From TrEMBL:
Cofactor field: L-ascorbate
Protein name: Fe2OG dioxygenase domain-containing protein
PANTHER family: OXOGLUTARATE/IRON-DEPENDENT DIOXYGENASE
One Pfam family in the UniProt entry: 2OG-FeII_Oxy
SUPFAM superfamilies given in the database record: Clavaminate synthase-like
GO BP: coumarin biosynthetic process; defense response to oomycetes; response to molecule of fungal origin
UniProt entry keywords in alphabetical sequence: Dioxygenase, Iron, Metal-binding, Oxidoreductase
Catalytic reactions on record: salicylate + NADH + O2 + H(+) = 2,3-dihydroxybenzoate + NAD(+) + H2O
Residue intervals of the Fe2OG dioxygenase domain: 199-298
PROSITE patterns in alphabetical order: FE2OG_OXY
Homology family: Belongs to the iron/ascorbate-dependent oxidoreductase family.
GO terms for MF: 2-oxoglutarate-dependent dioxygenase activity; metal ion binding
Length: 351
């Protein structure tokens, strides 16, 4: 029986199931060929680039560092990002409080419809997937704030204020990073800003309960992000892993830093110069984990294609143009898969 599901008033999230079990329910167990193999994971704390954003707009050096990280890893960490420590603490605290509320209170936000702009759900897409993921999540659209704030949970009482206070400076960081990335590609500073139309910003509060058999399941299996860039805050419990040269590597938390990764849309805009890299979340038996990714997105109508400045005889255009809305729908409908959704839009796909 599916443990985390919505049936009228009998909605049950993973968090409420996981606290009382000592074996992973069968619908969370991955086939033997698709398990995390936790003993084979390396650590790249020392080598995932850590970029000091102190002077990101003025300094060529920072945008070059970011460019190199996008080429070599698709991932980097940022410090001196300008997001106040109190804002980070309050965001983490209110997320923890949200998931500590009684089930009846949390379920007021429940929906299994991915098109909803505010929703609590579980796993990834409960409507389409065969194996569930060890995660509950609250996903909120958050830009423009005034369009969505009224939909957000009103409990805990400080929820809306704390989350709004977090989303504003994270957006500032996203805008600075998009400029630095444009510059690093030799494009006009505002190239990506303009290419993605009216910007969208979503934040997810991921809650991964303790898991009695973490070797059998994933918090989230390997996937690439469909959006432009993702800026992730994690608590002090490790769980994020990144695929690097064919090997899964753990990215352990550094307090007050954020982890940034390039999404599929930058891979397309850069005509494959920058890579949208597979990453996954694993779970553990000793401690629940919270991660808070901000997904910065194009508008659904934005027409995405490789920048013409990056196409020449040696670098033929690798993608057909598509709207982000079209791309995003494919991403949600097919579920998290190791083969990236990008392949469906490659020019070679049509030959
Ligand atoms: O929890 C994490 O560290 C990764 C989260 C993630 O990849 C996602 O929400 O798409």
């Amino acid at each position: 029986m599916v443990m985390a599901m919505a049936m009228g008033s009998e909605k049950v999230l993973l968090l409420d199931v996981a606290s009382n079990i000592n074996r992973v329910p069968s619908n969370y167990i991955r086939p033997i060929t698709d398990r995390p193999n936790l003993d084979k994971v390396g650590s790249i704390d020392a080598s995932i680039p850590l970029v000091d954003l102190h002077d990101v707009t003025g300094s060529n050096d920072v945008s070059q560092q970011i460019g190199r990280a996008c080429e070599d890893y698709g991932f980097f960490q940022v410090k001196n990002h300008g997001i106040p420590v109190e804002v980070i603490h309050k965001m983490m605290q209110v997320s923890r409080e949200f998931f500590s509320m009684p089930q009846s209170e949390r379920l007021k936000s429940y929906s299994d419809d991915p098109s909803k702009t505010t929703r609590l759900s579980t796993s990834f897409n409960v409507k389409t997937e065969k194996v569930s993921n060890w995660r509950d999540f609250l996903r909120l659209h958050c830009y423009p704030l005034e369009d969505y704030l009224h939909e957000w949970p009103s409990s805990p009482t400080s929820f809306r204020d704390d989350v709004a206070e977090f989303c504003k400076p994270v957006r500032e960081v996203a805008l600075r990073l998009l400029e630095a990335i444009s510059k690093s590609l030799g494009l006009e500073r505002d190239y990506i800003n303009r290419a993605i139309g009216q910007h969208g910003q979503h934040v997810a509060l991921n809650y991964y309960p303790r898991c009695p058999q973490p070797e059998l399941t994933y918090g989230l299996p390997g996937h690439a992000d469909p959006n432009v860039i993702t800026i992730l805050l994690q608590d002090d419990v490790p769980g994020l892993q990144v695929l690097n040269n064919g090997k899964w590597l753990a990215v352990n938390p550094i307090p007050h830093t954020f982890i940034v990764n390039i999404g599929d849309q930058i891979q397309v805009l850069s005509n494959d110069r920058y890579k949208s890299v597979l990453h996954r979340a694993v779970v553990n038996s000793y401690m629940e984990r919270i991660s808070i990714p901000t997904f910065y997105c194009p508008s659904p109508e934005a027409l995405i294609a490789p920048a013409s400045e990056l196409i020449d005889e040696d670098h033929p255009c690798l993608y057909t143009s598509f709207t982000y809305g079209e791309y995003y729908q494919k991403f949600w409908n097919r579920g998290l898969a190791k083969e990236t959704c990008l392949d469906l839009f490659r020019t070679s796909h049509y030959i």
